[in-house]
Write a structure and sequence with these properties.
The chain is mainly α. Among the domains are: about 1-60, Ubiquitin Ligase Nedd4, Chain: W; about 65-155, Tetratricopeptide repeat domain (Serine Threonine Protein Phosphatase 5, Tetratricopeptide repeat). It is built from 8 helices and 5 strands. The two termini are about 30 Å apart.
Length: about 220
């Protein structure tokens, strides 16, 4: 089975990165540069698509049918037409792309963005609502829904939507704090523990484990 390649070097200074949970409320392991402290975030759409494609030895083709190919081509045209003079054409192309392939959430976000630019906020909300709940860009869609509700003077609904988003963020922060507490506890108790990826590359280890690995390396094993 193939595995998604990990970031190995900092894009800012070139130093080797380490994988850990950042101290910014995040809940996932990220590539963090120990030299310049840059946190390397990856596009969730690209990560999700790549992980899905690597589940089998033979990845699925990116374009599986003529309709999917047409949708991608038309969608690309729509994304390039965001100025005021061509916004109507962008809307037409986005809707046309969805007739070929209605399973790409990013197309609904473009449709919502286009409607927002045209100040057709009701239609923008309807487009954003079609982004699946489990999509990596659902949070972004919910934020845009709140903005559109505010512009429609539906302030109470916008506030409810924002409170839902804040509640999600609080859950993530709580999970992050619990994870940090667990890591700190392991460090304090002197446990020999480490985590690796599917290829055996180290993602994280306790200070005691790091010392043990250093001794093993010095011994030439």
């Amino acid at each position: 089975m193939l595995h998604r390649p990990l970031i190995q070097h900092c894009k800012s200074c070139g130093s080797a990165v380490t994988y850990r949970v950042p101290d910014d409320g995040d809940t996932k392991f990220r590539a963090v540069c120990p030299s310049c402290h840059t946190i390397h975030y990856e596009n969730p759409l690209i990560v999700a698509a790549l992980d899905e494609s690597l589940k089998t030895a033979k990845p699925k083709p990116f374009i599986a049918s003529a309709d999917a190919g047409a949708a991608e081509a038309i969608f690309s045209l729509a994304t390039s037409m965001t100025d005021d003079q061509s916004i109507d054409i962008a809307l037409l192309y986005t809707q046309l792309a969805l007739t070929f392939n209605a399973e790409l959430p990013v197309m609904y976000t473009l449709l919502g963005d286009t409607y927002e630019s045209m100040k057709r906020y009701d239609k923008a909300i309807a487009a954003y609502e079609k982004v699946p709940a489990d999509s990596p860009i659902r949070t972004n869609a919910d934020m845009e829904i709140a903005v559109s509700l505010q512009r429609l003077d539906r302030k109470d609904e916008a506030l409810v939507k924002l409170k839902e988003l804040i509640a999600r963020v609080r859950v993530h922060i709580a999970q992050s704090r619990a994870m940090h507490a667990s890591v700190a506890s392991l460090d304090a108790t002197g446990r020999l523990m480490m985590a690796t990826d599917a290829q055996g590359r180290m993602l994280w280890c306790t200070p005691r484990a790091e010392q043990a690995l250093a001794l093993i390396a010095l011994a030439g094993y």
